[in-house]
Design brief:
Oligomer: heterodimer
Distance between the termini of chain B: 18 Å
Shape of chain A: globular
Radius of gyration of chain A: 23 Å
Helix content of chain A: 25-40%
Strand content of chain B: under 5%
Number of domains of chain B: 1
Radius of gyration of chain B: 11 Å
Number of strands of chain B: 0
Number of strands of chain A: 26
Helix content of chain B: 55-70%
CATH architecture of one domain in chain A: 3-Layer(aba) Sandwich
Number of helices of chain A: 15
Largest interface: A-B, 33 and 24 residues
Number of helices of chain B: 4
């Protein structure tokens, strides 16, 4: 086949020819080599092409296994974008996602989807058909559609191109110094944005990714043992996973051997937690990363070059290579040096938009207001930031009601929209206690707390579920009739 | 003791039927955040210290397992 150096498939093929028999991914049960990965992906693609399916994305709903990644890449070889779906998500959320995708073909391991994984794998490889598809592809083609919380109650499907993904993975691998000797430990669910590092770093660098079982993150000694056994050297985890492990007594008895690089992201890392990790891993490199799904997982990074103090607040740092990060005022003007503004991103990392959602795309992905001379699309994050004198960016929260919980982005409005659909809930307010990392739901009406909790579980993903529910007489209101969130926070958990 | 444990568990996760479930951790029913809260409350309530060594799926998969763990730790003192 031709050498086409324009997408992630060329990364896969280069690694497959260089490291053929070496393991690309492993989980607790199985492993897959680079050569096997290429073969599985090509078989799947050949079956998809032969089936003459409509030209649309293909959803993949499989478990946490090495073959799920082969299915993703198979979809890519067929010239389509994949949309990963978490099987454990509630049905109503899954239905909303599938409806947004216009009921696409769905790959599953059982009979529930329109395409069965094992059946697809039986297909012979049709190199001619694959090459024909490949010739039509450009680096701007969509690679994946990943869903995030939307305030209306409908998840938003962020579409990223090969180009965006490749810009990020290249920049990240340089900052974290990832090479073919590394073993990465994956924490993220495969349908979530953070997983793109664990999926694509091996293809670029020849490193191996080990998919950690989710439940290990509540058993620090079990987790560390497993990481030591698999020779893990590097990881990109949510700050919240690192924090939980620390609260559960990581390093009290267990230890990590040979672990050298940790990138954390998703929310603000408490200085106290990082200090403990630095103390136990004195030679490890620690990097704080910040950025949204819409800018391909990231914008900025900060390599921590000193021992942090317990109450230290880390900056989010400087832009990755090939990313441009700047601030705009509320009325779209340049922000004077040293002042706060909305964090905006430009460059190849900017996503193609929200799938089948023109309205929300046009609101967030806009023409750079500082440039009227040519087409220059930027993404407005809704995050507030400030550049320090040394050029490092600081993060100062949100301009709306979006929070980060357990490494996931959550719109409190989405929780309220779901709760309002439950019989016996008249009014409600979702609150976030940042300090204790708890989502609260205050409500009026005669529904029982348990009943609401059970019903919500079938409507929104587990990470969005309010962990504290409280029935109250009435919701405090502002003079304009809106819910007085500040007052409720103060009354409920002493928020400022 | 069992009732008190169920009360604590239900306070953390109102949506789970703790009388019935036997794979709370290995079945991914509890989140890691739940375990943080449950451990803190059990430590307080029964004046014990649940360390990382005890944080294994088999000690938290059911109310019976949690009860056995608490009894064992209370007996250690």
């Amino acid at each position: 086949m031709h050498s086409f150096n324009k997408n992630v498939l060329s990364w896969l093929e280069e690694s497959a020819s260089k490291y053929a028999g070496r393991t690309a991914y492993e989980d607790e049960n199985e492993s897959i080599s680079f050569a096997e990965l290429e073969e599985e992906a090509k078989r799947i693609a050949s079956a998809i092409i032969k089936a003459e399916l409509p030209d649309m994305p293909i959803a993949v709903m499989m478990g946490r296994s090495v073959h799920t990644i082969a299915a993703f890449l198979g979809v890519v070889y067929s010239g389509r974008a994949y949309a990963p779906i978490e099987a454990k998500d509630p049905l109503s959320r899954r239905d909303k996602i599938l409806a947004n995708l216009k009921n696409p073909p769905l790959i599953t391991e059982d009979e529930s989807g329109s395409l069965n994984f094992a059946e697809l794998l039986k297909s012979p490889i049709d190199e001619d058909a694959l090459e024909k598809v490949r010739r039509q592809m450009t680096e701007n083609d969509p690679l994946y559609i990943i869903y995030t919380s939307g305030s209306s109650g409908n998840p938003k499907g962020v579409i990223s191109s090969h180009r965006s993904l490749m810009a990020y993975i290249k920049a990240y691998s340089e900052v974290m110094d990832i090479n073919e000797t590394d073993v990465l430990a994956s924490q993220s669910q495969l349908d979530y944005i953070a997983a793109i590092r664990d999926i694509y770093l091996p293809l670029l660098t020849g490193a191996k990714t080990f998919l950690l079982p989710k439940e290990y993150f509540m058993q620090p000694d079990v987790l560390f043992d497993s990481m030591n056994r698999h020779g893990v050297t590097a990881a990109g985890w949510s700050s919240s996973a690192v924090t939980v492990l620390t609260k559960l007594g990581a390093f009290k008895e267990g230890s990590l051997k040979g672990f050298k690089k940790l990138c954390f992201s998703g929310s603000v890392m408490p200085g106290k937690v990082l200090a403990l990790w630095q103390e136990n891993l004195p030679d490890c490199k620690f990097v704080n990363q910040y950025g949204p799904t819409e800018a391909t997982a990231s914008c900025t990074y900060y390599e921590i070059g000193h021992r942090v103090s317990e109450d230290e607040i880390l900056p989010v740092g400087r832009a990755y290579d090939n990313y441009r990060v700047f601030l705009l005022t509320e009325d779209d003007k340049k922000v004077p040096d040293g002042e706060m503004g909305e964090i905006c991103v430009a460059g190849p990392c900017v996503a193609l938009g929200y799938y089948n959602d023109k309205e929300r795309t046009e609101k967030a992905f806009v023409q750079n207001p500082l440039n009227s001379a040519y087409r220059d699309i930027i993404y407005k994050t809704g995050d507030i930031g400030r550049f320090r004198e040394d050029g490092l960016l600081e993060f100062h929260g949100r301009s709306d009601r979006q929070i980060k919980h357990m490494g996931h982005r959550v719109e409190l409005d989405e929780i309220e929209a779901a709760a309002m659909e439950i019989e016996g809930v008249s009014e409600c307010a979702a609150l976030y206690d940042t300090e204790r990392e708890n989502i609260w739901l205050l409500y009026t009406g005669n529904a029982g707390a348990r009943d609401i909790s059970v019903k919500l579980r079938n409507m929104i993903p587990l990470f969005m579920l309010p962990r504290k529910l409280k029935q109250i007489e009435e919701l405090a209101k502002l003079p304009n009739g809106k819910t007085d969130i500040k007052r409720l926070e103060k009354d409920t958990f002493g928020g400022k | 003791m069992r009732d008190r444990i169920i009360e604590i568990l239900s306070g953390v996760r109102a949506d789970v039927d703790f009388e019935k479930e036997t794979e709370l951790v290995s079945g991914n029913i509890l989140e890691s955040f739940d375990i943080v809260d449950i451990v803190a409350e059990l430590d307080d309530e029964f004046d014990i210290e649940i360390g990382p060594k005890e944080l294994k799926a088999e000690n938290f998969d059911s109310v019976e397992a949690i009860e056995a763990l608490v009894e064992r730790l209370m007996g250690d003192e």
